[in-house]
Specification:
There is one protein chain. 23% of the residues lie in helices and 22% in strands. The protein has 240 residues and is α+β, with helices and mostly antiparallel strands. The chain has three domains: 32 residues; 64 residues, 3-Layer(bba) Sandwich (FAD/NAD(P)-binding domain); 125 residues, 3-Layer(aba) Sandwich (Glutaredoxin), CATH 3.40.30. The strands form three sheets. A five-stranded mixed sheet has the order 4-6-5-7-8, sandwiched between helices. A three-stranded antiparallel sheet has the order 1-2-3, with no helix packed on it. Strand 5, helix 3 and strand 6 form a beta-alpha-beta unit. The longest helix is centred in the middle third of the chain and has 21 residues.
Amino acid sequence: MSCLITTSRSCAEKNKLESVIVEDKNKNESKELNYDGVFVFIGLTPNNDLLKGTANLDQWGFVKTEYMMTSVPGIFAAGDVRAGSTKQAASAAGEGASAALAIREYFKNNRRIKVNYNNVSTKNEENNILTDLYTTQPSQIVMYATEYCPDCHRAKAFFDTNGIQYLRVGLEGNDKATEFVVTVNKGNKSVPTIIFPDGDVLVEPSWEELRAKHPKHKNLHCVKHNQKQRYSSSEIYLCF
C-alpha cells in the first residue's frame, strides 16, 4: 500500500501527538489513526541512473554487490545505493572504506589474471600456473582467499615465513574461483580453502593444522602482533 500522511492532530494541553490522517493514494481513501508517536521516514529512491541496464539491481533498484563489487568487474558500490545496506550514515562511511580497500585489491591483483604469484622464480613455473587452477590435485599448494579474511592472512603468514611456495587465488571479482570454492566446500564459500598436491584440502585451518601438513615446521609458533597499522585490516604475525 502506498500511503501519505497528510495531516496530524495534537493536543495543545498535553503537547503531544494524538493521531495522524493517512491517505491511501491507490484507493484515494483516507483514515485517522490514533498514535502516541510517529517516526517520520521519507523513503528512498536509489540514485542508480549510472548503472541502469549495466549492473544487476534488485527489485527496488538497489545495486547488488559481492565484496562491494557490482556485477560489472571493476565497478564498486557503497552506502545507501547498495542492496542490503542498513541505510545509516555510520554504516555508509564504513562501506566506503571497505570499497576503497576492495578497489585497491582489485588493481593490485590485476583482475584479468586474478592470481597473486608467490615465490615464482622461473618462466617454466609461470607457464605451469594455469594448470594448477580449479583442480583438487594441483602441482603446488593453491590457496583460494579474500583480502579481508583473517584466516587467509594467517595462512599467508605461515607460508611466507617458512618460504613455502604456494599460489594465491583471490575470490573478489573472480566468479570461476568462487564457484570452485563453493563446489569443494559443498555449497559453502569458505576461505581460505587450501588445496595440496596430495589432494588434501584445508578449510579455515588453525596453526596446528598448518603445522601438521608441514612436519619440519611443527615447532613453529606464530602469534598475532597487535600493532597499529595504516589500514585497519592489516595484521602482523610473529613466527618463531
